[in-house]
Amino acid sequence: MVNQNEKNMRIEHLAIWVKDLEKMKNFYQQYFDGKPNDLYHNPTKNFRSYFLSFESGCRLELMQKPEIPIT
Fold it and tell me: Is the pTM of this model over 0.90?
C-alpha cells in the first residue's frame, strides 16, 4: 500500500556547480524554458548563483565560485 505522502514526493530544487554561470543560465533558459531570478553575488565569499524556476515547480540552482575545481 502506498502512503498518500509518498505519491506526492517531488524534488523541490537541485544545485550544481558550473564553470560558466552565464552560459549555463542561458542554456537552461533556451532549452528548458527556465525562468532565472536576478544574479545573487556574495563578494565576501566570491560566490555567485542563479535559481531557475520551471513550470513543474522544480528549481535549479547554478552556482559558481572560482575556488571550486572543475574536474
Answer: no
